[in-house]
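Extended Data, panel c. Modelled sequence:
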Amino acid sequence: MVQTVLRIHTRVADLFNDPMDQTEQQLRLTLEALFERQEYELMNNREYGLLHNVDYNQRIHAHVGPPTPDDLDELLSMRRNTQYLLAHPRTIAAFGRECNRLGLYPESVEVGDDRAFAWRGVPFLTCNKIPIADDQTSSIFAMRVGEENQGVIGLHQVDIPDEYVPGTSVRFMGINEKAIISYLVSSYHSAAVLVPDALGMLDSVEIARSEPQ
């Protein structure tokens, strides 16, 4: 669970609701911050986060430091129907530099309404919640998603009291003596890897290398 309290003075609701509903706008910003934290937990939580739930046999290490096309090919070969690669933006940039050095030009593919950098037709999704270690190394994840594919799935409780969006409730907590309105905003979430080969990781890839003096 990720939870916070939104507090708004009644004068805001009284005086500044035209042309936009300020309570709704403050709630929107609160939910965005809440979902950012949720994304962090889905990646890093020690109980259910993806970083800590990659099967040992689905972990490999970079061969020479930076992520190379050979490393990505090995990662993709470890599972059927890899649908997404997930990495920090700086890690994707490091892979792009390796491709440029080798004279390779990866394609881009459509993901929803956008286009994404891809390798072997598998799109890279950026996630700045993937940690970068002090030695400037990080990880690249490969995943298959969806229950029907025996992949990685997100979990949330539906039909909770005062549900605002699926898995998230907004509860009115009252108005205090200083005319502050309070709302308790709670989001419930988790994730599951249905079979071990649904999630793999290329670990310890260098995203910055010091040049020799």
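Residues 84 and 99 are 19 Å apart (CA to CA). This feature is highlighted in the accompanying rendering.
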